[in-house]
UniProtKB/TrEMBL annotation:
Segments passing through the bilayer: 6-24, 31-49, 55-74
Superkingdom in the source lineage: Archaea
Name of protein: MrpA C-terminal/MbhD domain-containing protein
Domain MrpA C-terminal/MbhD: 13-78
Topological relation to the membrane, as annotated: Multi-pass membrane protein
The entry's keywords: Cell membrane, Membrane, Transmembrane, Transmembrane helix
Pfam families (UniProt xref): MbhD
InterPro entries xref list: MrpA_C/MbhD
Location in or out of the cell: Cell membrane
Organism from which the protein derives: Desulfurococcus amylolyticus (strain DSM 18924 / JCM 16383 / VKM B-2413 / 1221n) (Desulfurococcus kamchatkensis)
One Gene Ontology CC term in the entry: plasma membrane
């Protein structure tokens, strides 16, 4: 029980750090990496809540497809935010 709560708290704090880094980053490719890290932290939280079907879908969409689409869009624009 204690280990579960500690894992939830750690994942929540880790996701907060990744969100802050993604929002403040000027390099858009690094921001996508931080966004993927935040998605992985959310996946850990969902896994602790025993929502495995949601976790599988969330990982495929948020880490895989979402990141790939954003990298493609950024390749068509500039790498750095003005």
């Amino acid at each position: 029980m204690i280990l579960t709560i500690l894992l939830l708290v750690f994942s929540s704090l880790l996701s907060l750090v990744f969100v802050y880094l993604a929002v403040t980053e000027k390099n858009l490719l690094k921001a996508i990496g931080f966004s993927a890290g935040q998605s992985i932290a959310y996946s850990i939280i969902l896994h602790v809540f025993a929502a495995t079907d949601i976790v599988l879908t969330y990982i495929a969409v948020s880490v895989g497809i979402y990141s790939a689409v954003l990298v493609y869009v950024i390749s068509k624009t500039e790498k750095y935010e003005v």
